[in-house]
């Protein structure tokens, strides 16, 4: 089963989403697997959406770049 995971940027109105398999999300969220181990084929930006959804803090690529 696919889940749609979304995260809203805390610095702008951008909302990004990604679809992941529920088993993978369960492994990440409930079994404390590392995001890069669960989804090695996703880009770092895509993994940031998943982490941002989980920990309620997310910056989109544009705003993340402004922080440097």
Supply the number of structural domains. Answer: 1
How confident is the prediction overall: mean pLDDT?
Answer: 92
Please identify the structural class as seen in this structure. Answer: alpha+beta
Report Rg.
12 Å
What portion of the residues fall into strands of 2 or more residues?
A: 15-25%
What's the helix-strand series?
A: EEHHHH
Classify the oligomer. single chain
Tally the beta strands.
2
Q: In which range does the helix fraction lie? A: 40-55%
How many DSSP H or I helices?
4
* Biggest sheet, spatial arrangement of strands: 1-2
Please summarize the sheet with the most strands.
Answer: 2 strands, antiparallel
- Please report the distance between the alpha carbons of the first and last residues: 38 Å
């Amino acid at each position: 089963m696919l889940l749609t995971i979304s995260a809203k940027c805390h610095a702008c109105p951008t909302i990004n989403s990604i679809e992941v398999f529920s088993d993978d999300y369960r492994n990440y969220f409930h079994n404390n697997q590392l995001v890069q181990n669960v989804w090695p084929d996703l880009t770092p930006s895509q993994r940031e959406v998943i982490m941002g959804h989980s920990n309620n803090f997310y910056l989109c690529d544009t705003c993340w770049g402004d922080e440097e």
